[in-house]
Amino acid sequence: FYLQIKRNIYFNKVHCPLNTQCLLASYTVQSELGDFNPIEHQPGYLNNMQLIPEQNEDTERRISELHKLHRGLLPANAELNYLEHAKRLDFYGIDLHKAT
User: Fold this and answer.
1) Where in this chain does the record put each FERM domain (predicted)?
2) For the chain: N or C, fewer Cβ within 10 A?
3) Which residues have C-beta within 8 Å of that of residue 32, sequence separation ≥ 6?
4) Are the CB atoms for 78 and 34 separated by under 8 Å?
């Protein structure tokens, strides 16, 4: 379920404001990379991760700052937090179809 919602947000199937995209991405980073470590996680450590549709240096910096706040959060809890925030989005769980 987490992976499907993440995919829907990445491919703009669910409207998600940029600030929320960055927050959700920070939970993904916590889930996949664990706690922020300044030695391991140098500037640019998010370059190869496809986190949000309009990813750039500024958004990566924002995601990194949020990632730092998740210290100690286990991967399963990071994914749960992702889902908790995602379910508040407009059109969450709704699949729109074109009427003909």
Assistant:
1) 1-100
2) C
3) 49, 75
4) no
Give how far Cα 91 sits from Cα of 9, 11, 46, 88, Å. 11, 14, 28, 9
Rounded average pLDDT over 81-88: 95
Residue 99 has pLDDT above 80, yes or no: no
1-93: CATH topology:
Acyl-CoA Binding Protein (1.20.80)
Q: Is 52 exposed, middle or buried (0-12, 13-18, 19+ CB in 10 A)?
A: buried
* Angstrom distance (rounded) from CA 44 to CA 61: 9
The rounded distance, in Å, linking the Cα atoms of 16 and 9 is 7
Contact criterion met (CB below 8 Å) for 1 and 41: no
93 pLDDT above the threshold of 70: no
Residue 8 structure tokens: 């829907």
Q: Tell me the two tokens of residue 100.
A: 């003909």
Domain spans, the chain: 1-93
pTM, full prediction: 0.89
